[in-house]
Amino acid sequence: MTSQETLYAFDRRFLDRHAGPIISDLSVAIVELVANAWDAYATRVDITWPTADGERRFAIKDNGRGMTAAQFEQRWGVFDYNRVAAEGEYVSPPPELETLAPRRAYGRNGRGRHGGFAFSNPYDITVEAGGEQVTYRVSRGGLRPFHWELVKREPSPRHGVEIKAVEPTRLRLSAADIREVLGTRFLTDPNFRVFVDGQAVTFDDIPRDFLRESFVDIPDVGRATILMIESQRADRSTRQHGIAWHVNNRLVGNCGWRSTDYERVLDGRSSEAKRFTFIVFADFLADTDAVLPDWSGFQQSHPAWQQTQIAVQDKIREEISAFHSERRREVKDAVRERYASTVTQITPIARERWNSFVDQVTDSCPGISSDQIEQVAGILANLEASSSQYSLLAKLHSLQPGELDQLDGILADWSVATAKLALDEIQSRLKLIHELHDKLRDERADEVRELQPLIERSLWVFGPEFESIEFTSNRGMSTVIKTLLGGSPQGSLNRPDFVILPDGSVGLFARPAFDDQHEVIGVAHLVVVELKRPGIPIGMDQKNQAWKYVVELQSHGLIDDATRVTCFVMGSKLTPREGVREEGRTKIIPMAYETFIRRAETRMLNLYARLSEAPFLREAGVDAAAFVAEPTAGQPGLGLSA
């Protein structure tokens, strides 16, 4: 097979990501399917909603312009089908409705057609147009995200589209729920009616909390009635939202936000524009010549229309403000009730400050949801009750937007307590690397008082198997080694757990072994670290000395053949071609101090060096030593405030 003949396949998750909630969310799916009927200039849509016992399966049928078999296969065969480019922005009515004005189609990319998969996989789609009726079965899977096969073809004088479930999915919404969802979106045109199980979707299906009626008087012109409908959540676009003008029970133009609406009412890109629909009943305009003959709009220069439009826009802006005011009051009451027990524990001044915040953020941030207001108010109530109070807010205020996004990402995966533990450990290890840089290169450093305790905290540098906190210095083993060496020089009493040598020191770190009852039965792993003074090269003699330590400990019964022993003999330099020595379960490793430091930096992902060169440190005039040191008041350390 040549490269030109290669068949490209799609991952099975492609369609889920491509269509998103159109497949996964029943509310979105049904809206998309009904919108497709609108775009086909249907005047009636009939939805069959499944019964709980499964006797009735999902189906949706419209009387729109329909499709021929060729049109179906062409449109269904193209991802991101460009409807406007292929068919135009407006769709004409079927021949029997030619007196109606063209309807603006809202579909743009063809993704709404995948809504059928939310109700069944596979599903059957029957298309009627051009004198025939053709049924296809559309299924997911295979090398393509979906495919179809011809089921039947027969003559038909009708036009329209019907989708039927074949293997229906379980639906969590009732028919009443669906009428509510559709009622908030598809009542703008009296010539477009939707039925669910034979029952027409009407204004009565919209909950009272989401429907408001108001009136506006236009002097010397007439009185308009305005119905405000709020969707319970914002849609992806303004499709079927905006202002719809009805004159004598007929839609004039299309529902939407027009240029002057943007200027006088609200920004059409906002979330409110995708939630609110206003139906304006202005029958008095029928007695004027303000309506264009084809009902596609109004005479923009007509005085009656100009007066009416301005008065209605002002009233709608007022209604939106009043709606938000009521919702804000409800949100405030809910927040105060939710955190009443916490707020009663703080001081009166703090309580007043908290209440003032709730008022200000609710009134000043219309884009913030009630859930987000509750969350922020809860945080502030807890901060008022805490000892640190608002110092955290000062830190958040100093962060840039990108840093806030990064903090949000951290908190999405980490709890604050876990993040603090991790950051504290990172800071501790960076501080340790800083000390290693200083002490291991200082010829005046005291091995017992400074270097050996430093190495004891640095066992993790040797490798992940030495991370265990159970590795501790072993005073008993140190005593045996001192005896082997014939006593110890003066000063050993300062740290009896380490052995002082004429040319260095020895530390022994043991990890215990346990039986099935979790009782200690010996030593599982012993680490011997011998540090040589600067100038003494590490060679065969030094490695042999380490081997003698192991033999002596075995002879005293402190370790046995099952004990794993790792000896590190460290100094400022190694003799040429010096390598690792292994004897059974004992390994003796020579290592230069510089190698140890580089290994420490590597195990910390070179974070020390990266922080040393970090622009934010240089710009702040902070050096790496100060940054990794224990943080003090006002110092930008890595640690988090407890």
Main sheet: strand order: 7-6-5-8-2-1-9-10
Class by SSE composition = alpha+beta
Low-confidence spans = 1-5, 488-493, 615-622, 630-642
Q: Quick one: biggest sheet?
A: 8 strands, mixed
Distance between the termini: 65 Å
Binned, the helix content reads 25-40%
The total count of strands amounts to 22
- Portion of residues in beta strands equals 15-25%
By DSSP (H or I, 4+ residues per run), the number of helices equals 21
Global morphology? elongated
Q: Determine Rg (CA atoms, Å).
A: 39 Å
Please state the average pLDDT score. 79
Word description of this protein:
- The protein has 21 helices and 22 strands.
- It has 642 residues and is an alpha+beta fold.
- It is elongated.
Q: Which key features would you list for this structure?
A:
7-stranded mixed beta sheet; elongated; single chain; disordered C terminus; disordered N terminus; 8-stranded mixed beta sheet; 642 residues; 21 helices; alpha+beta
Structure, briefly:
Residues 1-5, 488-493, 615-622 and 630-642 have low confidence and may be disordered.
Question: Could you give the topology of this structure?
Answer:
Layout: H1 14-19, H2 21-24, H3 26-39, E1 44-48, E2 59-62, H4 69-76, H5 83-87, E3 90-91, E4 103-104, E5 123-129, E6 132-140, E7 146-155, E8 160-165, H6 175-183, E9 193-196, E10 199-200, E11 211-218, E12 222-230, E13 242-246, E14 251-256, H7 259-264, E15 276-281, H8 303-338, H9 340-343, H10 348-364, H11 370-385, H12 391-397, H13 401-413, H14 416-439, H15 447-456, E16 472-473, H16 475-484, E17 498-501, E18 504-514, E19 520-532, H17 540-555, E20 564-571, E21 581-583, E22 586-592, H18 593-603, H19 607-612, H20 615-620, H21 624-628
